[in-house]
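Lab notebook, bench 4. Still working through the backlog of constructs that have no structural model yet. Next entry is a single chain of 318 residues. Request: give me the structure tokens for it.
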Amino acid sequence: MPFGLVLRSTGSRYLVRADDGSRHACVARGQLRIKGWNSTNPLAVGDRITFEPSREAEHPGTITDLHDRRNYLVRRSVNLSHHKHVIAANLDLALLMVAIARPRTSFGFIDRFLVTAETYQVPAVIAFNKVDDLKTEEELELLAEYQEVYEGAGYRTIITSAIEGTGIDEVKELLAGKVTLISGHSGVGKSTLINAIDPALDLFTLEVSEASGKGVHTTTYAEMHELHLGGHAASYVIDTPGIKGFGLVDLEEHHIGDQFPEMFKRKGDCRFNDCKHKEEPGCAVRKAVEEGAIAPSRYRSYLDMLEGVDDESTYRQD
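Model written out:
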């Protein structure tokens, strides 16, 4: 049976590209599940699979086997809190699209995304998009604050505007030769940026709702697209639906701090090996926060995650 790549996931239906380049509509075999996983979706975009093509054009083929994943990104299922939802698999990069205004992305949401990327070993970059939409001095100062926080934590940031073309060449260079997941809230301009990178894709977009100031969903399912960037290395981008909150799964309390790079590198200096960086004496992390070496917003996010505070009700600071 041929091997293939999952390009699109829409409920129980999948679009698969076979290794010979042909495309096939498929469903998953009924018994196809991952042992030990409480997942709402057995397959995700980016998965390598084995499938049996249909002999009749009007019927779908059958995915019979899921190959080992190199990595993946997951979040808590919206409807089943004890289940995970696999966003995408076998990634070289996760590009988080952030807006400073209309809609504003919160520190908490960004930090949960980054912690998840660290947990599942997916390199992450932050793109501050729609900078052409920043109208006030306060918004520009907030952009500078966001940049300082995340560059200080060791993350690469990019300033982008699909409307003005700002940062587009830098993003193209970043994505070249990689499989990249693009994620973020609705309305932050994910599809618009992808269109600016490769106009031939012509992904459908809508503006932010004037009534609510929030994003309107235009991407309704995850889909992988090949980018035409020139050169010999194939480049792919996975466009995903806008997400409201990013619930953590499969992360034990004592491991949360390890997913903050600026905390992890200081944990060895704490007086106690099992320091939770809360009220323990001799905590090197709290000392770094007090001295300004760790951003207070990052530390607050850490404490919220430690206490199990859900970010979905406060994910924007509108």
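Notes after review: The chain has a mean pLDDT of 87. The helical segments are 107-119, 137-152, 168-175, 190-197, 253-256, 261-264, 284-290, 296-307. Flag for follow-up if needed.
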